[in-house]
Amino acid sequence: MTAVFGAMTGLAVGLLGAGGSILAVPALVFGAGEDLRTAIPTSLAVVALSSLGGVLPRARRRAVWWPVALVFGAAGTAAAFGGAALGRLLPQRWLLLAFAALMVVVGLRMLRGGEERAGACRTREGGVDWRSCLPQSLLAGALVGVLTGLFGVGGGFVIVPALTLLLGLGAREAVATSLVVVLINSVAGLVAHAGSAGGIDYRVLLVFAGASLAVSIVAARVSTRLEPATVRRWFAFVVLVVAAFVAVAAIVDPAALG
Length: 258
Description:
Layout: H1 2-16, H2 24-31, H3 36-60, H4 66-89, H5 92-112, H6 130-151, H7 156-166, H8 171-192, H9 202-222, H10 228-252
Helix pairs in contact: 1-2, 1-3, 1-9, 2-3, 3-8, 3-9, 4-6, 4-8, 5-10, 6-7, 6-8, 7-8
């Protein structure tokens, strides 16, 4: 079961550049039986590796907008530490309920789609108008960092629409750039959760991350042959079903959280 959820995570990251990490924490808590405090850094390690697998083929195709990725990543790095600190103050039951609510938001956004339209920050030459859009970019990057530190997710479901709506990147560039930001934020979040990293079950991590990384590399290579809207819609249904399960389990069986 751990390998199956890892493969699903890698599939979503490789195809969409977003959303796959939203399944990692529930899978680790309810599938692998990990404590939530341990599942979050484990998830971040998995997300970092699967993002790396998705970035490599896209970087070779020069689809990554590196200045944009670095701006978002820099803003998110500091915020990830704040999110991790906030998470330590919340009871695990309420943290998981909040995570379920986040999953619902992600699933509904994926069902709506419609993010592929020109943004207001593109120059006529095709570049990014940083003078007018830097504050919004930093704010979006910081929001992603908080989510990364708090829930152990990569935040691609926020980054991809921000890159398309705000900066006007095309779908291919937005997905590739999102993966770099997710990688940066995941590493920062993992450092922020270093105190919990000692409890990681490395056997579970290797199985989950190995399946995720392998599938994300393959998915990134075949992503140009598939219809993104269809993939996004089916994945949204999976996310919503898992969100309902997480919410019910957190209410009915809080002992499962450890």
